[in-house]
Amino acid sequence: MKKTFLKTAGALALAVLVLAVFAQISVFTQEFEKQGQPEEALLVNGNAHRLEGSWSASVAFTNCRTGAPVSPPFAAMNTFMQGGTMQDFGVTSGMFRSQGHGVWKHEGGLNYSKAFQFFRFNTDGTYAERIVVRCRMEFRPDDNYVATCGIEIYDPNGNLLRRACSSEAATRFE
Which of 28, 85, 97 is nearest to 59 (CA)? Predict the structure, then answer.
C-alpha cells in the first residue's frame, strides 16, 4: 500500500512539473505571436529580445534636423537591469562627468526607450551642468541596437541652456 501511494504521489508530482514547464513555453510562444514577430527573429543567443545586460556603445553628436554626425564618436557603456533601471557611463573631454542613472522601457516588438541623466563638472570640480538624455532604441536580431537621442542641457539652477541630438550604436558586452 505504501509503495503504491509513493508511486502515485511521485507520478503526480512529475506530471505537475511537466505541465508547468509546457505552460511556460506556451506563454513564451504566445508573447512572440502577440508582437507579430517570428520567434526566430526575436531569439538572440537563446535570450528572447532582452535588452538586459551591459552594452559597449559608440555615440556621436548629430545635427538634429538631418541626423548627420557633427562630432567624432566617443565610447560609452550602458547597463540595463531587470525591472527597468539603467546606468550609463561615457567618455567626454574637457569636463568631468558623473555616471548616468535612468530608466528603460520595452515599447513593443524590438523597440525600446531609455532616459537617463548625469552631471558634468568643471575642471576645478564645481558643478556645471545637468544633462538629460532620452532615446528611442531599435534592437537588432544580431545582438546590437541603434538609437536616436534628444539631449537637454541645464545649468546648476535648472534653466535649459541648449538642446542637442545624438545617435548610438551598441553591441552586447560579453
Answer: 97
C-alpha cell at 28: 513564451
Which single residue is written with the C-alpha cell 575642471? Answer: 123
The answer to whether the beta carbons of residues 148 and 61 sit under 8 Å apart is no
Q: How far is CA 128 from CA 87, 96, 116, 119, 158, in A?
A: 21, 10, 17, 8, 11
**Model pTM score:** 0.71
**pLDDT tens-place string over residues 43-100:** 444 344 578 999 999 999 999 999 999 999 999 999 999 999 999 998 876 678 999 9
Burial of 157 (0-12, 13-18, 19+ CB in 10 A): exposed
Q: 17: helix, coil or strand?
A: helix
- Cα separation, 5 vs 1, whole angstroms: 6
Query: Which string of b and e fits 97-132 if b means at least 16 CB within 10 Å?
Result: beebebebebeebbebebbbbbbbeeeeeeebbbbb
Non-local CB neighbours of 158 within 8 Å, separated by 6+ positions: 130
